[in-house]
Amino acid sequence: MELLSNLTLGFGTALSPWNLVYCFVGCLLGTLIGVLPGLGPAATIAMLLPFTFSLDPSASLIMLSGIFYGAQYGGSTTAILVNIPGEASSVVTAIDGHQLAKQGHAGMALSTAALGSFFAGTVATLVIALFAPMLARAALEFGPAEYFSLMVLGLVASVALAHGSLLKALAMIVFGLLVGIVGIDVNSGASRMTFGSVELSDGVDIVAVAMGLFGLAEVMTNIGDTSLSRETVQSKISGLFPDMKLLRRIAGPVCRGTAIGSVLGILPGGGALLSSFASYAVEKKLSQDPRQFGRGAIEGVAGPESANNAGAQTSFIPMLTLGLPSNVTMALMIGAMIIQGIQPGPSVMTSQPTLFWGLIASMWVGNLMLVILNLPLIGIWIRLLTIPYKYLAPSIIVFCAIGVYTLNASSFNIFVMAAFGALGYILRKLECEPTPFLLGMILGPMMEEHMRRALMLSRGNPMTFVDRPISLILLLLAVTAIVLVTIPAVRNKRDEALVE
Amino acid sequence: MLARLHTQKDFFAGVMFLAIGVIAIYETSNLPFGTLSNIGPGFFPVVLSSLCTFFGALIVVLSLLSIKQPEPLSLSWRPIVLVAATISFGVLIAPFGFVPSLVVLVAISSLADSDLTWLDTFKLAVGLTIGSVIVFVYLLKQPIELFGPYLMVL
């Protein structure tokens, strides 16, 4: 019954008129930007983050999560209609979704994606409401040593599940941790790696960095990429309202996708990406006619779309309960919480119950809004899709620049964004993923603090990290993840699964 | 194949991490290291920069040992224009204000795309400037000066 009263509190917050407005505006803006080709959810959130600073903490997080699902949803629309996945997790949707669109079944693919996502969102919201408090309560028992080890595990797992070179990803984490601790050390007052700059003594602003790495650098990589102005499916979209036959056909894949996504989403790193790939593989195996896959199988849209939405949603669990980001979006959410003066961690649930439960309830409200909003508005989204990239590029730069400037009306953050834009462009060319960098950057100061406290409590005995059983288990898991990924056989399997 | 080792890219990535590590060691080595029971401000950075140097060196060595064909690295100058445009905005906004620096930002960033004609650039500059002024200055009430002090003197 505790759950019921919590949810009542949550819906009370989420359904308050202003919060509904912010949720709606978030969903709308998120979809609007997410639909534009070549802009993923991370860039969308980074661009829209400054809009939320003036709101109170609950409203700002509600709007940000609205932006997040909106962007995610917009990405699927782009994947189906133009075959440009806005982000890695809708790559799978593009395979069969675009085939369906080409055959004139775009309406069916779009409504399947919408309904599947809504169902998955509903289930995932319940999963969060049930498990987040349990996890948060367990995490309250954690001491600094456990926290430190948990962060090590989170960072390592996030790169083990991603694609690309493990070694480069580990180096990117360390680089991110280093940038995270730039500025005045709170304990000693010593300035670290500021290179004599006054502005750097406050540290490097995570929003400016994210806009550089995911906004500016993305435009830099995309410019001149002719594949972004591919032809859109122009035929009139019909059949948006599914019949019983279709519903019966997609019920199985949607349920399985939701289950896969809800579980995998909690894992650091892979979340939405891994679950959509896993769901596609499962549906292909279970199908009576696997040859249909790749040629427009509706199951290949229903399963992965539900999975990535469920995964995106449950990735909120580690963020809300442990204060650990499992992807870039969550890192930015944590950044937003810190700006709002809330220290992310297990105590958020008890110290800010309206915020915690309001956010959870608003997830469901947001998902409902997206279904109601998007099917009728699909015509507008299609028109947005036809904007050529050459007009988009300067517009994105303008929004990023203004957004960063409004952070604190200083030019310095614009220079930070420019620098990280250039860096992000080079990193992409060198095939170094920027995600581990950003995760490291946000965890840097927290990791140092927990390490300092743990060593202080153990009177300088570094064995404290392996003497405490929970900490030991977490570290062993981290080591196992690295070893598993480096074993050639597993490595090839992982690459196959992620490349396919 | 996303994950195949591209040796030349690896080599440069390794050199980059190596350089970052060395610079960070140099910058933080004079900070007090502290003791294990009370670590100083230098402890964590030194551990991290050593790790960064180590990973960088390892990546370089592995890239040199790899027998795979190096894949050339292709960088083009056009994207760099966008960085220049962003910097110009940062430089111009305080002295000249929002409107002039936005126009310059759009004008320079349009150079990055060869498909844009002068007319396109003009329309973009006008449209984006009017749109941003409405959204950011009038709707969101951001404290941004439309025209800066340098223009007021004239």
Cα(first) to Cα(last) distance of chain A is 46 Å
Order of helices and strands of chain B: HEEHHHHH
Shape of chain A: globular
Major sheet of chain B: 2 strands, antiparallel
Low-confidence stretches of chain A: none
DSSP summary, beta strand count of chain B: 2
Question: What is this structure's SSE topology?
Answer:
The complex is a heterodimer of chains A (500) and B (154).
Chain A: H1 2-14, H2 17-35, H3 41-48, H4 57-82, H5 91-102, H6 106-140, H7 144-160, H8 166-180, E1 183-184, E2 191-192, H9 206-222, H10 244-264, H11 271-286, H12 299-314, H13 316-322, H14 328-339, H15 347-351, H16 353-385, H17 389-408, H18 411-429, H19 434-457, H20 464-467, H21 469-486, H22 488-499
Helix pairs in contact in A: 1-16, 2-3, 2-4, 2-16, 3-4, 3-9, 4-5, 4-6, 4-12, 4-14, 4-16, 5-6, 5-12, 6-10, 6-12, 6-13, 6-16, 7-8, 7-19, 7-21, 8-19, 9-17, 9-18, 9-19, 10-11, 10-12, 11-12, 14-19, 17-18
Chain B: H1 7-28, E1 34-35, E2 38-39, H2 43-65, H3 78-96, H4 98-110, H5 118-139, H6 149-153
Antiparallel strand pairs in B: 1-2
Helix pairs in contact in B: 1-2, 3-4, 4-5
Characterization of this structure:
The complex is a heterodimer of chains A (500) and B (154). Chain A is 74% helix and 1% strand. Chain A contains 22 helices and 2 strands. In chain A, helix 4 packs antiparallel against helix 14 (328-339) and helix 5 packs antiparallel against helix 12 (299-314). With 500 residues, chain A is mainly α. Chain A has one domain (2-499). The relative contact order of chain A is 0.18. A two-stranded antiparallel sheet of chain A has the order 1-2. Chain A has helices at 2-14, 17-35, 41-48, 57-82, 91-102, 106-140, 144-160, 166-180, 206-222, 244-264, 271-286, 299-314, 316-322, 328-339, 347-351, 353-385, 389-408, 411-429, 434-457, 464-467, 469-486, 488-499; strands at residues 183-184, 191-192. In chain A, a hairpin with a 6-residue loop joins strand 1 and strand 2 (191-192). The N and C termini of chain A lie far apart (46 Å). Chain B has 2 domains: 7-65; 78-153, no CATH class. Chain B contains 6 helices and 2 strands. The longest helix of chain B is centred in the middle third of the chain and has 23 residues, at 43-65. By secondary structure, chain B is mainly α. Chain B has a two-stranded antiparallel sheet with strand order 1-2. In chain B, 68% of the residues lie in helices and 3% in strands. At the A-B interface, helix 8, helix 9, helix 17, helix 18 and helix 19 of A face helix 1, strand 2, helix 2, helix 3 and helix 4 of B.
